[in-house]
Amino acid sequence: MNASPLEPIRPGGMTRRQFIKSVIAAGAVTSAGLLFTGPAGAGHKTSPGAVERLITLTVNGQQRRVDVLPQETLAQTLRGKLGLTGLKVGCDRAECGACTVLVDNEPLYACSTLTHSVRGKNILTVEGLARADGGLHPLQQGVLDEQGFQCGYCAPGFLMATLGYLTANPNPTRQELAHGVSGNLCRCQDYDKILTALMRGAEYMRRG
Ligand code: FES
Ligand code: FES
Fold this sequence. Notes:
Blueprint: H1 16-26, E1 53-59, E2 62-68, H2 74-81, E3 100-103, E4 106-109, E5 122-124, H3 138-146, H4 155-168, H5 174-180, H6 191-207
Parallel strand pairs: 1-5
Antiparallel strand pairs: 1-2, 3-4, 3-5
Helix pairs in contact: 3-6
Bound molecules: FE2/S2 (inorganic) cluster (FES) (2 copies).
């Protein structure tokens, strides 16, 4: 689809729609990390003498072998070692939800989950949402159509939290969904638009 002449062009020649699409498909935000003051997630200090251990994780349907320290968080492993940078780190202390992933369909804060604790479980990140043919997941499509996010940094976490919530309650009221994603914060703070976008995505999911 051609861009509207009124649609602002982002750095790199992307329209806003193209920019948001890249964010919700793979969390491809670069400069937005500057909005957050928390550590970058992969920069934790390691204990002296700590030894990595080779383990197998199931991530987005694939078996991934990776060396993991005993105290390493899932956010560190996924972002820093497996290259899944769609997962964002905001606060790095279980407050903002930017790092939300699904573990056996349950939303979890990856910044506060030890990687060793999720061995044998199914981990889903935003990179695993798209269809096999490359098409967007219905939830992603709803967010794209409503343009609910501004910078998009929080979008991957919201998407994963919403998907986890909808697994248990596929037809929520707006208020129920608001409560379901209340563990996710947005620095740009247009929660009303975000909720509209997520409700649209939920509607697309029900349609199949
Ligand atoms: S980065 Fe904020 S909850 Fe994990
Ligand atoms: S942090 Fe910018 S859209 Fe949520």
